[in-house]
Specification:
This protein is α/β, with parallel strands linked by helices. It is built from ten helices and seven strands. The chain has one domain (about 5-245): Spore Coat Polysaccharide Biosynthesis Protein SpsA, Chain A (Alpha-Beta Complex), CATH 3.90.550.10. Helix 8 packs parallel to helix 10.
Length: about 250
């Protein structure tokens, strides 16, 4: 078991001032070697709040969470990465448990919204079906037994994204029509299974986004009111799954 881990907490943001003020005060900063806010162009005070708290900031050049991760990768100095959503979907009190599991030497640990007692309170019927479908599809095609394949809240060894070639920017066409609509979690999930890495999951509820707690509009009932274009993201994820399935296995 690894005792002292240098962990970098990566927090993607885009106008998350309300969530940051509510959630980040519950994060124990002493657990982390480095905290980086990867910002996609906030104008609501998110960056000023992050600066006030002393967090390292990376301002994205290109759009999309995945490209934010790619651009920021070289800034990471920890041995492990934890990606965490500050909008209320990720519960800070699960961080110590996640870190304890990483100490056991896993390549990746996922905080699953659908394992055991855990539940996503942010799911709508459509997003629940989408998450269920992609988890079943990925398990079937890549021979694993995940309960949650898409969630952002997870930790993994810092060298894994580079080793699995997730840190490269692809063609302009791909980035415009596919890459900007999908984060790297689905591909990370598939490749960790494909190359039989050491993976585990822990259960963890997903609350609603803080700004949606009192939102009962019809659109929010059908789909969570995130800034994600769910249908384009779904198509991009489907493309990524079959591209990965038909891609020849490389020797890493």
């Amino acid at each position: 078991m690894e005792k002292d881990l240098k962990i970098t907490l990566v927090i993607p943001t885009f106008n998350e001032m309300v969530g940051m003020k509510t959630i980040m005060k519950r994060v124990d900063s002493s657990l982390f070697h480095q905290i980086i806010v990867v910002d996609g162009g906030s104008t609501d005070g998110t960056l000023e709040y992050a600066q006030e708290k002393g967090y390292q900031i990376h301002k994205q050049i290109r759009r999309g969470i995945r490209l934010g991760y790619v651009e920021n990768y070289e800034n990471i100095t920890g041995d492990y990465i934890i990606t965490f959503s500050p909008d209320g979907n990720s519960i800070p009190e699960y961080l110590p448990h996640l870190i304890e599991e990483l100490k056991k030497g896993y390549d990746m640990v996922i905080v699953s919204r659908y394992m055991g007692y855990a539940k996503s309170h942010d799911d709508t019927f459509i997003s629940m079906i989408g998450n269920w479908f992609f988890t079943k599809l990925i398990n079937c095609l890549f021979g694993f037994h995940y309960t949650d394949t898409l969630v952002i809240f997870r930790g993994y060894k810092k060298n894994i994204p580079e080793k699995l070639k997730l840190t490269k920017i692809r063609s302009d066409f791909y980035e415009k029509y596919i890459g900007r609509y999908i984060s790297w979690e689905p591909t990370l999930t598939m490749r960790c299974a494909k190359y039989r890495m050491k993976i585990t999951e822990i259960p963890g509820d997903e609350p609603k986004r803080i700004e949606d707690e009192n939102n009962s509009s019809l659109s929010n009932i059908l789909l969570p009111s995130t800034r994600i274009n769910h249908f384009r993201a779904g198509f991009a994820c489907l493309y990524a799954v079959f591209e990965e399935f038909y891609k020849k296995k490389e020797k890493y």
